[in-house]
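notes to self, project folder thing:

trying the whole complex as one job this time. last attempt i did each chain seperately and stitching them together was a nightmare. two parts in total, labels are on each line so i dont mix them up again. if this works i'll redo the older ones the same way
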Amino acid sequence: MSTTEAPAGNGHVGRALRRKEDPRLITGRGSYVEDIILPGTLWMAMVRSPEAHARIVSIDASAAKEREGVVAVLTNEDMADLLAPLPMAWVPPGAEVSTPEHWPLAKGKVCHVGDPVAVVIGEDRYGVVDAAEDVVVEYEPLPVVTDIERALDSDAPVIHEGIGSNKSHEHSVGGGDLEAAFADSDVVMERRIVNHRTSGAPIECRGVLAEDRAGKLTIWSTTQVPHFLRLFLAIMLGGSEERYRVIAPEVGGGFGTKLQIYAEEVIAAWAAKKLQRPIKWIETRSEHMMTSHHGRDQIAYVKVGAKRDGTLTAFHARILADMGAYHQLLTPLIPSLGGYVMTGVYKIPVVHTDVTGVFTNKFATDAIRGAGRPEATHMIEVALDQLADELGMDRLELRRKNFIAKEDFPYETPYGITYDSGDHHGTLDKLLEHFDEDAMRREAPAGKLRGIGYSTYTEICGLAPTRMFGPTGVGVQAGFWESAVVRVHITGGVTVFTGTSPHGQGHETAWGQIVADRLGCDPDAVTVLHGDTDQGPMGLDTYGSRSLAVGGTSAAIAAERLADKCKRIVAHQLEAPVEDIVLQDGKWIVRGSPDKGMTLGEVSMAAHVPTNLPEGMDPALEASSFWEPDNFVFPFGAHACVVDIDRETGKVEVVRYVAVDDCGNPINPLLIDGQVHGGVVHAIGQALFEQVVYDEAGQLVTGSFVDYALPTAAELPSFETDRTVTPSPSNHLGVKGIGEAGTIAASAAVTNAVIDALRPAGVTYMDMPLTPLRVWQAIQEGGAS
Amino acid sequence: MIPPEFDYVAPDSLDEALQALAGGGGDAKVLAGGHSLLPLMKLRLAAPGLLVDIRKVPGLRGVQREDGQWRIGAMTRHADLQGNADLGPVGQAAGLIADQQVRNRGTIGGSLAHGDPASDLPTVLLACEGSLTVASSSGTREVAAADLFQDYLTTAVGDGEIVTEVRVPAFDGWGSSYLKFTRRAEDWAMVAVCALVKKASDGSFEDVRIGLTNMGSTPLRAGAAEAALRGKGADAIAAAADQAAEGTDPPGDLNATPDYKRHLARVLTRRALEEAAA
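result (full assembly):
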């Protein structure tokens, strides 16, 4: 069943409605954590380690405590009553993971620059920052290791003595006789592909406000995961979950950085309880660059085998993944998440991925937009271009030859997962309708090196079927269903509670469209509430492009349950058979008699003043849904990128970017385009501009947006987008995720374009970031004149 | 991003501002547009005890031509200068500073007194051989561009002094270009080049000035390249530009090695000269 036929009420699904969220955001009427002011609030400032690896010899807080307005200075010892360290909740299946104890405040030693050592709490926001500078910490520096390959050497400094080495875990997926398959290949292409460290860099940094009142702790946090945060606060601080309320108010972007349980959230909650005053902390951008988790940071040794005619025979990737100094919530799982789609859209009979997690003296990596899948797609898509070059074959012909065919879906991969639906030839054909490669080459400006790159991708999202992702599957100790409550008020207004927690995606608009179509009202009449654990049902929050596929479906189901009730009420009131009641033009009518009908408001009035309801029917108009999918969803698409490179300076300019994506049935094309634009920018950012850099001493070099070069509109072309529609069988809306797809697809398209441009200059391979310096150096080393 | 504590005054006259500055001693700083100083304070890399905000001081803003020179008030914002074709490289460079928000606040006097070698206007002032008027409690003095930039973030503008005016020559008969190489439009220059050429009636270059941004601890003149081109024609540009980095010792950073910067200086000099000569 596809969406377009299901509701048949108003036809709002599929319309490019403008975001309901935007007027308040654009006019500054949104309320973020920073905007929330409680009387009697104390401010918190962090004392952070300037050392990347050191033993803490002593902490002298006496001067800080003497400052006017300082109420408390806390160290690890003060918080000894915490019941558990910061959580790591995600274990690759079957892997033995060594996870170091990670307390909110450092215990005995620091392991990365920015590791919190103490906090100062006081009356004045500025005063606590001054006082934090007065806390004197004596460190005994230890040897530092920042390079993942060096960290695995037997003589490398060991960061966690208790673990005994810097290896956190190994995890392998795949199957078949690899050795035989490579032996049977005509060509074996090998590359070392580096996927460097990036930051999520949302516009709103993190922040938390905690208040303990009458035995209930309320936390306002810039989080993507209020329900997770509530659970872990209860585990760490004690007591049961309902004594905690987590509110994620307006959240100004997450990109994964706010899918986390951070030390500051726990410390603020703990201190609010102890001091019985509200505690507030707002992160600075410098802190964000240092201690909001990073992403990527992997080195992959990739090996692809093929027959002379281009038929792929075998794939192996050995991935070294930088965990950073500690495991945060999902750290060790991230590279494995990419592992499941590492061979992308291709049929390869024998595949194998071996992941090794490595500790270094840097901040933790964790989920950043795409989380493992951008690394996987980059790897396979760049490798395919490299292989095409070795085979002397057209890159698109090589891709087409190995695509999983439309008729092969659902397709079970050798990694043991089942792709739900796809049409890779279809998206590539659609892309080429917009994109004439020969013409683009002919139109290249004089003096520039022009390059064209492609990326044909798929990804795994819509987290998640618990049987595959939970304790018995990937190993996450949770269920991954989603919830919704739909409530129709007496006068016909509708409130939807969703268990997902948006932070820029546009749920309020999209859920409004889904529910309006099912109930026969205007999307503007639907208010979508989220991000408050005391308001709606239990939910599993927002990440992994799960919200629409899982949470949107749940909202649809709840609305459909209500629609059934509406039909029965209308049938009863109008004395017609239930099966004859239909929604038409925003009204419940008797089929064929459009003048005989009831509006949603009239139905709701009848339900709330139950003088004439069907026998045995409960009053009011409210329904809930808890829904879990049977499978993930697998968006896919084909992207093309054109770059011009100034041969003298090495500067790369993206002059054209065309994205054809398939995310199943479109709920709102405008939201899809917005997500694709943002996602592509995120990946162009990584490919050309952004990199988190630590020096050998573990000092963070890119501590602000001066050095961490987020691209702006001035650096980007106008994007061209289009879609194909291949509904997902994983949910009855037929939808797939789109929030991460652009990021997953684009870095390979850009990189392939740059390498394509540089071939005449003698360059055949480059790792990101493709900065002017690195491109210039590659041209110098390429040696072509 | 919270600065340490400081005092703040915003006097209504130059005399009061100078008095306040003198009263604050070495601990006082002039606040003009604030777009260099305030970020440093927020990062706690600068911690002046007193800020003397001169935004209310009258007569410090505006552009006027007098005696073959342009007199530009020190508090004139970059946004007031950007795109002003009469001002040659000043207008060109001003339009390339950071982003529009910064240009709306940042001032020419502030930028020159700050003396960041990666900033644009210092190089332009040096190349066009302009000067500053600087006031103190003991009167005013003129500081030539060649004497102004002493070291990294160090200029001849002393404690207790306020830049009141910037003088650049009228650019009649000059061709100019300011080319800035950045990763992003809003960035500081990785390298930038200011080229000024004056052609004789036979088409040869009667005078040539080349300024380099971010090629050392101060803005620099590319003297060897200037000399190589002076008196020659456009066909000598490439060879002259090859000497643009001569004598420079630029520091490497995250985005550029010293070699790369010298290379960029040569490429940009050639392009800037070609543009200025066109």
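what i see at first glance: Chain B has a mean pLDDT of 96.
need to look closer tmrw
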